[in-house]
Amino acid sequence: MADSSHQTGVLALEDGSVFRGPAFGARKTVLGEAVFNTSMTGYQEILTDPSYFGQIVTMTAPQIGNYGINPFDSESDSPKAAGFVIRELSPVTSSWRSRQSLEDYLKASNIPGVEGVDTRAITKKLRVTGVLKSCLSTEGISDAEAIRRAREWPGLIGVDYVKEVTCKGPYVFKSLDDEERPFTVRGTKLHPTHLDRKRYKVAAFDYGAKRSILRKLVYHGFDVTVV
To answer: What tens digit of pLDDT does each residue of 39-65 get?
Structure first.
C-alpha cells in the first residue's frame, strides 16, 4: 500500500461514478479516457505503450508493482499513459532486474496514480459503456469538481496524438533489451540464440510503434531504420 501520509486520490467518470483511495506517484490532476487492461504482468510495458497516450489506465490484476521497473522493458522512450489506477500497490519490489520502484517511477515521470479502489467495478462499467471521459486527481479536489472536469474535457475526437508519440527524427534501432546480449546472473553466463541468416534493411514508420515490434525485427535478421 502507498504511505498513509499520502493525499487521497480520486478517479471520477463522466457518468458520475467516483472512486477514492490512497494516492501515489505524482501530485497532479489529469484528464483522459478511462480504459482498462487485464494483464497479470507487464505494467511497465503498458505505461510506456504509445497506444495508451492520453489515457487513464486501470489494471484488473489485484497487485501491481511487485517486480519494480527496469531499463529494458519499456515500449517507448518514456511513459505515455496519463494516469494509473490499481487495486494494491505492492509494498515490496522483488526482482534482480529492478532498478526503481513503481512509486518512484511515476513520481519521476509526473504521472499520478490511485490505489485501493474497486478496479473490477471500473472494468465492468467500461466493458458495458466503452471508454469514458475521466479525471484522476491526487491534489485533494472534491468529487463534484472531479466529475465536472471529466464531463467538460473535450475528449480525443479530432485530436492528433501521432505527433506526440512518433520519433523526433529518423534513427537506426539498436535493441537495449538485456535478453539480446550476454549478461551474468549469479555467476552463470547466459547467451541468447540468434538466427544465422542474411540481414535485410527495412524502414519502420513510427506512428506510435512499440519497441517489442522493433526488437523482433532486429532479432529475425532485419536492420531497422525508424522514420
So the answer is: 999 999 999 999 999 999 999 999 999
Q: How many CB atoms lie within 10 A of CB 61?
A: 17
Extract the C-alpha cell encoding 77: 522512450
* Segment 155-194, tens digit of pLDDT: 988 889 999 999 999 999 987 554 444 444 444 444 445 5
- Residues with Cβ within 8 Å of 189's Cβ and at least 6 positions away in sequence, in order, are 182
Beta bridge partner(s), residue 37: 59
Model pTM greater than 0.85?
yes
Q: How far is 102 from 188, CA to CA, in rounded Å?
A: 28
- Give the whole-angstrom CA distance, residue 30 versus residue 161: 16
Residue of 177, 185, 217, 182 whose CA lies nearest to 201: 217
Q: Which of 165, 17, 148, 152 has its CA nearest to residue 85?
A: 17
